[in-house]
Design a protein that fits this description.
The complex is a heterodimer. By secondary structure, chain A is mainly α. Chain A is built from 15 helices and four strands. In chain A, the strands form two sheets. In chain A, strands 1-4 form a two-stranded antiparallel ribbon. Chain A starts with 6 loop residues before the first helix and ends with a helix. Chain B has a domain of 120 residues: Rossmann fold (3-Layer(aba) Sandwich). Chain B is built from twelve helices and nine strands. In chain B, β1 and β2 form a beta hairpin. Chain B is globular and about 50 Å long. The chains are: A mainly alpha, B alpha/beta. The complex binds adenosine-5'-diphosphate and magnesium ion (MG). Adenosine-5'-diphosphate binds next to β2 and α3 of chain B.
Amino acid sequence: MTAEPAVGLKALHSRRGWIGVGAATLIVGVIVPLLSVAVPASSPLHVPDYLVALLGKFLCYGIVALAIDLIWGFTGILSLGHGVFFALGGYAMGMYLMLSIGAQGVYKSVLPDFMVFLDWKELPWFWRGFDNLSVALAAALLVPGLLAFAFGYFAFRSRIRGVYFSIITQALTYALMLLFFRNETGFGGNNGLTDFKSLYGYDLHEPSTKVALYVLSALGLLLTYLLCRFIVTSKAGRVLRAIRDVESRAMFVGFNPTSYKLFAWTLSAILCGLAGALYVPQVGIINPGEMQPANSIEMAIWVAVGGRATLFGAILGAFLVNGMRSFFTAAMPNAWLYILGSLFIAVTLFFPDGVAGALGRLKRKS
Amino acid sequence: MSTSALSTVPADESAEKTGSSPSVSPPSAEPKKRSWSARPRTIDPVRREAVVAGRPAVLCVDNISVSFDGFKALTNLTLILEKGELRCLIGPNGAGKTTLMDVITGKTKPDSGTVFLTHDARDLTQLAEYEIAELGICRKFQRPTVFAGHTVYENLELALQGKKGVLSSLFFRLSAAQKTTIEGILEQIGLHEHAAVRAGQLAHGQKQWLEIGMLLAQNPKVLLVDEPIAGMTHQESERTAELLKSLAGERTVVVVEHDMEFVRSIAKKVTVLHQGSVLAEGDIDSVQNDPRVVEVYLGEPRT
Ligand SMILES: Nc1ncnc2c1ncn2[C@@H]1O[C@H](COP(=O)(O)OP(=O)(O)O)[C@@H](O)[C@H]1O
Ligand SMILES: [Mg+2]
């Protein structure tokens, strides 16, 4: 799984690369929200609410794609279980949003409705503290991080690699999905957490709150991008690629692959947790469906389509595939999975380095 | 007994015990197979003294046995490397030369026996590869392995001696002294013009040199070099011989090589491995004239 070193990475060392980042940030993070809030709905320039909501989701997916690129593209470890980290971040935020509903629920109890339904009398211990936003945010990062750390520690120490590792990550997300499906687990079972009303006092149904969440997601994506960029262009990034390409050589040069893999892997999970926490207030629901094995596979496909080990390719892939998904699930609801599958096969066969790689080759030719 | 008794502990019990050096017999009371995690992590000082026997040793391989699915790749092998020497390791294919390097560098865990540095209490067979590398034992693989996707310069940067943890790498900046070191190595291995070239694009011989350069950057105590001139032109091998000779003295260098002419051009002392044990040891002429060595190489005793 040796990708060529990052065409896009080189481009980003240049001034043009930075101008690109600046321009994208300006358009996505400033102009779009302004066109949504400050331009009247009658104007053709107005960005409708549904588009803001859609793009807000894509921004979160972009964070996930960067996280996967870090561990897959740069470190060579294909995770097919990142959906679980995303979902855990989402659940942490969902728990806060559930408790913010207070007594406005159907049953007029301070307990979340599903707990009343289960005839529980008080909050389970692991829900305590989640009425505080900072606690919830910390949990959204720490819980995926700790799970990934524990999982990765044993997997990498036992030198589990390649397909075997990918398969156990599928098992991980599947196992947690089954766990969260159970009502007794205490996260709302099948239905998950939903019917959120407000976030930190702001009404989630207000367009202004939605735009604010959108802007926060854009900021999250930008910061994630800058962090990943810092890592992959540092010596640590070169070590990650060295481990990916010739692990034995990296060991005999004195690097401990386990600690480097564990670092990239855990950070990747934390970033997914962040994405999940930004995602849930925008879509208004989190349920175990997010942990379906197929979801995690789709996340990896975003990065494969966009191009591994380029960072911007990952974001591109997330936007591209999800854009197509939105289009096709509306136009041809039954065909989407076939289209996704064909897309993946086509990319693997004809553009192994993804859209970013193909663009890079075009540029070099001209 | 050939010259081997002068510097090695006899490899098997039947071996003659000659010379003034206190011969050490293999610890015989040991059970054949012990799980290596249950073994002591440090070397018994008495045993160490007995093995070193007052020689200026750097690295000792003490009574190592390795088997793969019952096949004995190394049998009670003992090898003492002295400070600053350039030792050639020869022997027919399958003699166990590469396996010996694997054991020293931690890639293969032996069934029994120990490896230790004279000035370090630890048993190297209990350490991970990267820990052994940190102790200053570096190796060059039989097939050149460099980081093909990285530039020549980056390859050397990665190999450079220093802290190898995640945090130090994240915030790493090359110091002026380190840059000078890299420049110096680039000169030494003749790749100065190729510093910005991706290592994967180098010619075969250049890759070999780059790998040797990476070893230099690690500033090791002991350098293990497996078949360095495989696939090199005559001219390239001559340069490699010069390079290796210039390394010994400060460092201890072990070279595995088949080419006797090459061995003659670099080595003072040669160790012959055969079927996982030391067959003979000494200067090149005495080894080449040793009837047992001749038999092994030619298949029959010289008449
Ligand atoms: N990982 C392994 N599994 C099984 N047999 C091995 C392994 N490594 C080496 N051997 C065997 O051990 C013997 C010694 O091999 P090696 O050390 O590579 O020899 P040399 O380098 O002297 O040519 C050979 O017979 C080889 O087939
Ligand atoms: Mg060999």
